[in-house]
Amino acid sequence: MKNRNTVLILGITSILILISVQVYIISGIWKQKNEMFSLRYTMHSQEALNYIRRGMSTDGFDTVRFLLSNYSEKANKELHAIKDEKELAAKKKAILNYFTKVINQEQDLSGLLSTYFGSRGFEKNFNSSIVINNLEMISNDTIVVYRSEDFANRLLPDRSRKVLIPEISRSKIWVNWFHEEDNNYRLVFDYFIDFSNQQKMILKEISASLGMSTLSILLIGIMFMITYRNLMEEKRLSNLKTDFINNMTHELKTPLSTITVAGKTLEMPQIRNNDAKILETAKLIGKQSVHLNQLINMILEISMWERTQFQLDKKIIRIEEIMNDVVDSFKSGGGNNASINQKYNFKGAEIDLDEFYFTTLVNNLLSNAVKYSDKEPVIDIEGFTQDNNVCIKVADNGIGINRLDQKHIFDKFYRASTGNIHKFKGLGLGLYYVKKIAQAHGGDVTVSSKPGKGSTFTVIIPCNS
Ligand code: ADP
Fold first, then answer.
1. Tens digit of pLDDT for each residue in 138-176?
2. Residues 222-247: pLDDT tens digits?
């Protein structure tokens, strides 16, 4: 359990680290692409501006210039006449609002840029905005209407009119700054564009790497799950094998110790003179040797079955006949304390069967029904034909099997009562053989059971197998 948790934690941690690394890389690529996109469109815009200026002799702000020039003469005079601080501030605000509104609404640059982008096959749907950095009204003296905080920082040290590019904004692409000046005002503003579908366009560009990294995470996840499951399965099998060896040792030790004790008994002087006792002990030794032999044969058989496929020696047999024979001999053998009811409706069906293996199959089911019972065993055997199949049901009133164990009881070496080897002896092979034999005949076996109530095993074999 501890091992299992360590493997699981290690695996999940590595996958999480992998995901984090991938997310880090992808976000880096995303950021880079975003910056490259902005840079690309800044460059396209510069080219477009040059083209528009040279080819069309405009910068897209002619109307703006005209309107501002008209407005600013009057506004300038009014501003200079105001003495009251509050009134001055309100006037400045009104002037700034007017400038901002006119530049945004009356500029033709966006339309010209869009046409240029469209003609070059670039994305032409964008929003534009202007941000005023500096607005001064000039007369004999200069009144600063507005100056952005970073405007001073953006002026080059020599205080020339050159303005540096503002900090690249994440969502907006800086295109250019504009400087306007006439007798009444001095204005500096930035012109920005932004693409509402920029993220979508970038996503498209990096979709290949995104897909690949998702796929690689998925693949690694699947590979981990498969490896983990195999590991757990191997661990389960190794546990089962250990259980099997313990059970087998226990099974072998019982006859062996009986034989040892019997041998010792025979050495005793008082027994040597008693013919009846000698005979009885000899018989016991004989019986236990046969049992020991059977166990050893079973082990040999297991390895035989593992190495070779079933070699079925099939014959056409009337199913009802063989069922009666098997049950009769079971009754006279190990099952003499069980009450067995048979109800057949095989309609004379004949099937191609290996008599030996089929007998083993039924015997295993019957002996389990007797073995896993804590009261007088009552076994109901039902047989009938259905859709060209022969169906045999063996139901008992035994201890039953819980849901979890039901999934595994047909596995090799699996024993539901693991650890409780003394109560019900066994090696966990009976049902494994039942399944193998049924499958070798083209059929199958299933179980339905309720703990404490009993179990029903259903064997289905095709009639023309
Ligand atoms: P074994 O009997 O040697 O343990 P089997 O392969 O025959 O091995 O059975 C596997 C397990 O299935 C058993 O250990 C037992 O717990 C359970 N089992 C099989 N048959 C029955 C039954 N008729 N009633 C209850 N439990 C059963």
1. 988 889 999 887 776 666 555 454 555 555 455 688 888
2. 998 999 899 888 888 888 788 888 87
Q: Rounded to the nearest 5°, which phi and psi values hold at 448?
A: -135, 135
- Are the C-beta atoms of 262 and 299 separated by less than 8 Å? no
Mean pLDDT of 393-411: 93
Cα 230 versus chain centre, distance: 16
Q: For residue 329, how far is the Cα from the chain centroid?
A: 53
Domains and CATH numbers, the chain: 2-205 (no CATH), 210-307 (1.10.287.130), 314-462 (3.30.565.10)
pLDDT at position 419 over 50:
no
Distance CA 359, CA 355 (A): 6
CA atoms of 293 and 43, how far apart (whole Å): 93
pLDDT at 183 over 60: yes
* Lowest mean pLDDT segment, chosen from 83-87, 196-200, 451-455: 196-200
- Among the atoms of ligand 1, which is closest to the Cα of residue 416? 16
CA angle 338, 342, 343 (to 5 degrees): 155
Q: Which residues pair with 186 in a beta bridge?
A: 136, 181
Distance 413 CA to ligand 1 centre (A): 10
Please name the residue whose Cα sits nearest to atom 3 of ligand 1.
Answer: 426
* Continuous H helices in 176-273: 198-205, 207-267, 269-272
**Ligand 1 pocket, Cβ-based, cut-off 6 angstroms:** 368-369, 372, 396, 398-401, 409, 414-417, 426-432, 455
Phi and psi at residue 417, to the nearest 5°: -95, 45
